[in-house]
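Below is how a single chain appears once it has passed through the pipeline. First comes the sequence as given, then the structure the pipeline wrote out for it. We keep one example in the README because the format questions we get most often are answered faster by looking than by reading.
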Amino acid sequence: MDSKIVYLFAVASLVKPGLFQNNSETLDIYKTAVENLHRHMRLTANYYTDYPDNGQETNATYDFIVIGSGPSGSVMANRLSEIPRWKVLLLEAGDEPSVITEIPFVSGALQFTNYNWGYKAEKQEGFCRGCSGGSLKWPHGKVLGGGTNINYMIQVRGNRIDYDRWAAMGNPGWSFDDVLPYFLKSEDAHIEKQDEEYHRRGGYLSVSDVPVRTESVRAFVEAAQEAGHPYVDYNGKSQLGVSYVQGTLRNGRRCSAEKAFLRPVRSRKNLRILTKARVVQILINPDTKEAYGVRYTRNKKYHTAIARKEVILSAGGLNSPQLLMLSGVGPRDHLEELGIPVVKDLPVGQKMYDHATFSGVLIQVNDSSIVFNQEQETLNPQTYIDFLVNGKGTFTSLGKYTKALTYIKTNASTDPDPSYPDIELIYVGGSLNTDKGLIYRRIFNVPQDMYDVIWKPFENKGLIQIFPMLVHPRSYGYIRLKSKNPFHWPRFYANFLSDPENHDVKTFVAAVREIERIIQSPSMRKYGAALVRTQIPGCEQYDFGTDAYWECAVRTITGTFYHQVATCKMGPPEDPEAVVDPKLRVYGVKNLRVVDTSVIPLPVTAHTTEPAYMVGEKASDLVKEFWGKKRPSGRDERRPG
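Resulting structure:
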């Protein structure tokens, strides 16, 4: 209990409302405190193990080089190194995670650490009009294990229809029946209410129910059922309905890609893992169009690594297209404009989908005791005992208060399949004011003046939120390089809510109507649940509750759950948007694959971390089959910790 208790009490001091003044220095203070906590927890024995490396740097040769250690990259490094004769190098631009990432409760705050690249989308018209700077924040993991160390751990595979449509687009081997075994292969499921044939025990990745539930979430789950939404295992045979959240948790702690797939195999002699190694170029022979290695920086020096078989790009939906373009694979006009020699003209970064959300649906209840009380919980010694001893309690909450999901098909949907959702409702047991505006308003880029109008009057009162997430947007954006300097961020254009028929906005409005209907069900009505009717600044000209008002509101405080896909789209040769083939090989470049969410051709009815694990599992078998190795039948090497 010694050093861990000290650490967690320090966390409590960070999240105690009112500890810091709400001024421009708040985040700097927070970041400094977190860094100090990192140093402190490194002293905690037997909790984290470093990845030491004393090997050769420049011109070392491997069979496979994996770029990026997110969920797909970690799986690839693990599965390929199952073949003892294959030498595998995994390169990660960030550092190792520390124990603070283990605490689900502080997930949101981790976006303000060096574990996040800190990307922002470009300011555009038509959405995010009320956001700070008029733009979206796009967190992207820069740490061993990637975004699985800073995300909210919500585990959702997607809908059967998602994958069947991939296959129908000309991608054989990617139907739901094809990919389900790969979802199962990773999983170690401990879920109370489940469709058993859709889950398994014994995989590397631990998945469980969130151990803590407030009375408000119980009331909402009951109300949703009263409104006609059945209770389902949303990772089972049917997705439409309501459920408590399933999370990537092990004993109440975060189960990241690093913990699940890398830590158990870090002692393999044929696997080398380098952190703080930023790849700046994939080396491709311009004559043979063959990838043969990478150039990267580490310890303030440039190094090269040579790949005998393949380079596998797993840098994620934002960084994979950047690296391809920097290496000469991308739209010819754009690369020539920047002076980058063109190796292969491909539509890299030309299309980018993301899941937009709306943070303006606030619900007041007349009993504040059913709502998460951050100050009370973080100052209660029992909270720490529950977490450390039993893996339960407040600190197991996903990002403080994510509790339940409901998949709905709104009356705005034009999809012919009646079982295909168009909205995910994310129920949280608190609001952006739960921490008095310290962290969560900043995550959604809500400026202080807007917070003061909408959320501040309800501090210390019964306030909850439901975030509608648009799972199948018709709007899509794109990526451009800022320059050929690999250390310059790319330019990200989200283009939210830009579809010509305004269908995305209409779907959001329909989702708000369904939320209104659900909270009028008896289980919520007994707590006096009602929408907060404060006019969102900039929308005062519209009557509250009208379609025009909600459209204005959605375009004013637009948010995102940073699920970018399709930037290196998978497709058949005749698809003019395709960058990789159905075996994830880059068109026109030998020995180069992309293995991450960037290959996903359409938005999925999911949070993209779980599909990313699946892509890694399937791709590892594709690589093994290509190089003449049968799938291994060996047992997993997962360890507790």
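Residues 198-253+355-560 form a domain with the Glucose Oxidase; domain 3 fold (CATH 3.30.560.10).

See the next section for the split statistics.
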